[in-house]
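Hi all, posting the design record for the shared folder.

TITLE: backbone redesign
STEP: 1 of 1
STRUCTURE INPUT:
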């Protein structure tokens, strides 16, 4: 493990610049980095940019590197184990065409890869850190940005393993993009399962001389679907979507067209609600396996479930409603988030971000006004916490 710690001193002549960090320019700059997960060169360039962005602010920056995983960017106004507030997110993105790494504006929206997931909101986090430092808010505040969230967040796991006591009273999770009028109260537990089928090879013209691994994989698939139904945009959306689901993320089997497959495998992506667990999933899968077919739970996590009457969440919601001029709703989503690691540690996780559509799609965009509104909400909330802390001293 290597952590490069940079104490970026505050300079008086940078005071005004720090106060008025150009939020949308920062969003544009971040989008231009082609930080597809695993693109080490572009990720390093982006990390250097983040460091430079905080130049003169007084921030303490740690770029932590661990064997076999991507780096983690950690910046704060203090370097301690317990924070009043942490913002968590990531700077890596899924692959896209060249033109998606050049941001463009249209009808109040900013288009480009990462506008919604989630460079716009990483910029919001940086903006909040600038504000805390420039206004000397008496709170312990930090920002954690991973670089491989789109492929499992191994960097976050390594980072937290090496910081076992790191925690916060409140974690602001900006990585739930979609609708600024909704606060996410629950996220599902992502569980990845590998199904492996072994067969006996034979010539394709004499299938009775072999055992088709592909066929037995399909039979197992059919058995699984009896318990976990398939859903599609071509069918009616279920009335209740807060249910366990699975999709077959990857299927491979066979080598050449005229040989019965002796090996086949599939990767399944289960999303479990908080009343389900891996043990019950395994019991179901045990009943689905055909001859020569087995499974292995590759990874599992924890669902994030927050009480909607949590006083910190209620206070945040009230601030957001005042700024937006509308009532906010709570929603439940199937996506996973790195904030689950802090939920397990007892932090209050507030999952809220700006509006947009097309996450991971060619037309990805974020609504510009929602980015600015989220920045305003976050700053007002931090000011409230700082005021409360000062009053209690």
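Okay, here is what came back for every position:
SEQUENCE:
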């Amino acid at each position: 493990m290597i952590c490069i710690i940079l104490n970026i001193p505050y300079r008086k002549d940078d005071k005004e610049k720090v106060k008025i960090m150009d939020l949308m320019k920062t969003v544009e700059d971040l989008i231009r980095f082609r930080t597809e997960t695993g693109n080490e060169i572009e990720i390093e360039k982006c990390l250097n940019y983040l460091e430079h962005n905080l130049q003169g602010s007084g921030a303490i920056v740690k770029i932590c590197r661990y064997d076999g995983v991507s780096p983690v960017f950690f910046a704060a106004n203090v370097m301690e184990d317990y924070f009043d507030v942490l913002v968590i997110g990531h700077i890596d993105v899924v692959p896209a065409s060249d033109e998606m790494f050049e941001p463009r504006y249209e009808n109040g929206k900013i288009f480009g890869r990462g506008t919604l997931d989630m460079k716009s909101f990483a910029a919001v986090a940086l903006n909040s850190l600038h504000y805390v430092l420039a206004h000397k808010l008496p709170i312990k505040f930090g920002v954690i940005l991973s670089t491989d969230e789109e492929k499992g967040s191994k960097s976050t796991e390594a980072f937290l393993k090496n910081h076992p006591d790191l925690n916060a009273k409140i974690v602001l999770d900006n990585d739930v993009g979609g609708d600024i009028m909704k606060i996410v109260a629950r996220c599902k537990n992502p569980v990845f399962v590998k199904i492996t089928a072994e067969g006996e090879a034979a010539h394709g013209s004499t299938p009775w001389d072999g055992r088709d691994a592909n066929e037995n994989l399909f039979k197992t698939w059919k058995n699984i679907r009896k318990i976990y139904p398939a859903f599609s945009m071509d069918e009616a959306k279920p009335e209740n979507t807060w249910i366990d689901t699975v999709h077959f993320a990857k299927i491979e089997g066979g080598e050449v067209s005229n040989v019965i497959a002796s090996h086949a495998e599939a990767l399944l992506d289960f999303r479990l609600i908080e009343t389900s667990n891996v043990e019950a999933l395994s019991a179901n899968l045990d009943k689905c396996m055909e001859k020569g077919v087995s499974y292995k739970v590759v990874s599992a996590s924890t669902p994030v479930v927050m009480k909607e009457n949590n006083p910190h969440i209620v206070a945040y919601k009230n601030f957001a409603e005042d700024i937006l001029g509308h009532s906010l709703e709570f929603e439940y989503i199937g996506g996973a988030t790195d904030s689950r690691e802090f939920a397990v540690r007892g932090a209050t996780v507030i999952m809220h971000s700006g509006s947009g559509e097309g996450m991971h799609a060619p037309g990805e965009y974020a609504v510009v006004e929602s980015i600015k509104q989220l920045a305003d909400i976050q700053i007002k909330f931090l000011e409230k916490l700082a005021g409360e802390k000062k009053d209690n001293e």
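COMMENT: The domain at 189-299 is CATH 3.30.70.360 (Alpha-Beta Plaits).
Let me know if anyone wants the other runs.
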